[in-house]
Each structure stands twice: as structure tokens, then as C-alpha cells.
Amino acid sequence: MEAAENYSAPLRSKIKNFLPPIVFMSPLTVLVFLFFFIPVLLTIFISMTDMSTASLTHWHFIGLKNYAKLVKFRWTKILLKNTVFYVATTLALFNVGMALVLGIVTTLLPRKQGMAARALWLLPRITPSVVYVMMWKWIAADAPYGIINEHIFGPLGLPTKNWVMAAPWVLVILVNGYIGASFGMIIFTSAIESIPREFIYASLVDGATTWQRVKYVILPMIRWPLLFVTTYQTLSLLTSFEQILLLTDGGPGRYGTEVWALNAYHRALANYWGNIQFGYGAMLAAVLVVIGIIMSYVYLRVFKFNELVVEPRIETL
Amino acid sequence: MESDVSQYTSKAEKTVIYIFLFIVTLPILVGYVWLAISSFAPITYGLIPHGGLTLKYWNFLTHTLPQRPSIWTVTLNTLILAVGLTVLDVLISSMAGYALSRIKFPGRKGFLSLTLILHAFPSVTLLIAIFFVLRLLHLYDTLLGVLLVMVSLQLPLGTWLMKGFFDNVSWDMERSALIDGCTRLCAWWKIVLPNIRPGIAALSIFAFITGWGEFLIPYTFTTTDAHATIAVFLQSLIGDSTFVSYGQVAAVGLFQMIPVIIFFLFTQEYLLSIFSGGTKGTA
Prior knowledge:
By secondary structure, chain A is an all-alpha fold. Chain A has helices at about 1-45, 65-70, 75-110, 110-125, 130-140, 145-155, 165, 170-195, 195-205, 210-220, 225-240, 240-245, 260-270, 280-300. Chain B has a two-stranded antiparallel ribbon with strand order 1-2.
């Protein structure tokens, strides 16, 4: 009797200690398991099958054949070229370039005005994507409806065009860039605002101009956030395709602005002109999944996210 | 203000900055102005309305458009998703965020790293596999399925933000509550949650706007008209190649913008603060 009590007391306290974390963590765990873990494994698994609408019930495990097909496929080169061009240009011009300029100039303004400018740049990010892309379509639409044609090209006597068709990459980069710039802008702003004031005052005492202050004080102090935004946004751009889907759907033609992530989607989920190729699409997605896992891990290690893990103090009660 | 260094920027420099900001921000402003004008004008050339004012493009509110679901069905679906996402995201994130912030348990560090990795992980790459998971759970083409996917993909960000808010709450009140015999669940609900109301408000606004505007997930995982959201409905109006009515599309677009505009006007600072806490970069 006594022995049983001795045995059950620590067990009961153990259960008592474990019950709260189990209760608190289980909803998250279940959903993460269903919609992150299983999908990651499933993506890699399906990428090694020939699953398609034609062979949904009698598919075969084909190992790395999809990957071999990718290497040989003549469109792969175009897909790769489009993707690199899209990511590099949008990143340089907007997600890092414009973001940096906005971060710097809005912090040179009085607080209120700077905030207002940043808030406006947040609008594209919170606007429903369909509405947002629609606005750009009409900014670029044919004369007399389109804003560029009616108010700029027309009055100047220049030929008017539907710019989504005439210059699809320009529009794709603008549409994505105007959303993408706000991420870096906010990170850079908070980095600049947390630069110790003494550095700024020291440079002022030395008689530095605004440009010198930016170049010799602000830029060197935000190198780390700059690197973070660059890597983080590279991954975001590499995997995002929603705006391109809505704007050009990969056109004009079949591969005009088709990027890697959009092609995976087209092949596996929205292939209206023929057989849906789950295997091939999953293979394209699996490449991005692997890149995503590696890069997420890199953020964790390189950017020392781990240092934020502080042991809870309440247990020392 | 002492920390304001803008006083050291010269007037000329400020003028240059304002001109630059005006030019680069112009496309953003023009888009919204166009939306407002063309939904009330019979015809719009560029930004110039012609033919007076009309409300005919707004009759989709009272008359169902041919071969389309009623706007109110679609609005109800969108509202269910947005409110559902807000409630579940805040509830689940604040539970997990609390445990990660305040309770010592084996695997805590692992969970925290995992949350961070998932936060950075591009979840959009998983859509193909999620399609199969939904089919398996018999949740494909249901609002519940769409809702669960949306909640799951938002959770890493929410949990991460909530953990941050909990970290900043004083321990003393919670400690005394626990000494007085309150359980962890009771301390969380009665003592800690009321202390992070601003955080909950910020995450709620963010979740609502995300859910309200979401296009890709409902578009991919539903096929029935009765399950469409406003975003899907609007895209079907634009994508209809036979006839696109500019004014009609603008009116529906403006209709979808209403809650976003309201939140934007009144809560910009919340929004800016949540984005500095960690954005999931959509582009």
C-alpha cells in the first residue's frame, strides 16, 4: 500500500507537470503535422512517382526519373532563366533596393511624415491580391482605358499598347516589387532607428553631410539586416507566384513569364489544357521545398534565432 | 523630440525626398483612385470619368449577376474564413506561444526552432501535397478544409509573435496567481491574456485582413460556386474572356476593399508593428 503510494506520487506529479504543455501545444502540433510535415514528405514521395490524372489509380514508383526528365526537358532552361531574372531583378530594384532607399529617406523625415509614407507602402501588401493586380492591369491597359496610355503615352504622341502584353516582365516586376519593398523597408527602418544617437551626433559634429552620414554611419550599421532581408526575400520571391498567376498566368505564350514555382502549380493543380502531372509538378515543388528547408535552417543558425530561446523563469518558483 | 534627427536634414534635402516619395508612391495612389472613380462612372478613360455618375455597377449587391453565385453567399463565405482564421489563429497561437514562453517541458527548444523554421519556410510550395491531404480527409472543396489550411500556414508566424508578447509580460502577477492555487490554464486565461490585449488586437487585425483577401488557397481547393470567396468571385469576373465590364469589376473590387480600408485608416501603427515583428514575405 505504502509502496504503491510512493510510486504513484511522482507519477501523478509528472502527469500534472506534463498536462499543461500537452494541452497548450497539441492544437498547433496536430495542424503542423497535417499541413506541414505530411505535405513535405508527400511532396518528395509524389515527386518519385508517375502520378497523373491518367494514372491516378495505377501509378508507379519511378525513382528519380522525373528529375532526369527535368534535366533533359528543353523548357527547363527557359524556366530557369525566367526564374533567375525575375528573382534577381525584383530583389535588386525593389525588395532590397527600393526598400533600402525608403528606409533611409523616411527616417530622414520628421517622424509623422516618415510614418505616413511607410503606411502608404504597406497598402499593396494588405490589399487583396486580386484587387491589387486588377489595378495594375488597368494602369497598363489599352488606350483609352489604361492610365499610362491615356495620361502619359497618348499626350506625348507615343504609340499606345497594352503594357501587360507589350512589356510583361516590367509589369511582373512592378507588381511584385511594390508589395515586396515594404518588408525590407520596415526592417531597415527599425534598424536605422535603433542606431545609437551618439554615432549620428558624432558625425554631425564632424560636419558630415546627409549623404556622408548615410554612407559612413547608417549603411555600415545596417549590414546585418541588409544581409537578412536579401536572403529572406530571395526565398520569398523564388517560391511566390500568386501575382504572376493573376497578372499574366505565365504568358504571353506558354513560357513568357512562367517561373519555376508557377510551373509546378500549372502542372500539378491547374493544367487546363491536358493531363495533370502530379508527379512532375511535385518534383518541381520538391526542389523548392528542399531549398526552403535548407535556407530556413540557415536563417536559424546564421541569424542566431536560437539566442532568442531563453529558459522560462517561472519553474524556479 | 530628442531622438528625432530629422532636424539635421536640410530643407532642400527634405524637398528632394518629398518629390522622390511622391513619384514612386504615385502608382499606389493612382490605383485606388481609379478603383473609386470607375466603379461610379459609366465609362472611364484613364482617370477621367465620362457620362456623369451611376450606381448601376453596384447593382450586384441586390441582383445576382447572370451565371454567378449571389454576392452575399460569397461575402458570407469570405467572412466565415476571415473570422474563422482570426479566432483559430489567435487562440491556437496564444496557447502555443504561452507554453513556449512560460512552461519548461522537454522538446521546448526543438518546438521553438521548428516554429522559426516553419515561419521562414515557403509554405506555398506545399500546395500540391496539401491537395492530397485534403482529399484524404474528405475536406477538398469544403470551407472547413480551406480554413484549416489557412490557419495552419499562418500559425508559425502567430505563435512566434505571441511568444514575443508573452515574453514581455511581468512574471509577478502570474507567479502570485499560481501560488494562490490557479492552474496554468486559469493563469493563462485570467492573468496573462488580458495583459497582452494589444498583441491580440494586432494579430487579429493581421489575421482578418489576410483571411479576407486570401485568393490562392480557396481558388485551388474549392471548385463549387457556392464555396467561392469574394476574391475567387472577382477573379472569375476578370477572367471571363467574353466580356469584362471595367466598372463592374471595379465596384466588386472596391466592395472587397471596404474592411481593408477601414483597418488601414484606423490601425496603421498596429499593422506596421506586426510587420516589424516578422512578415511572411508574400513577394
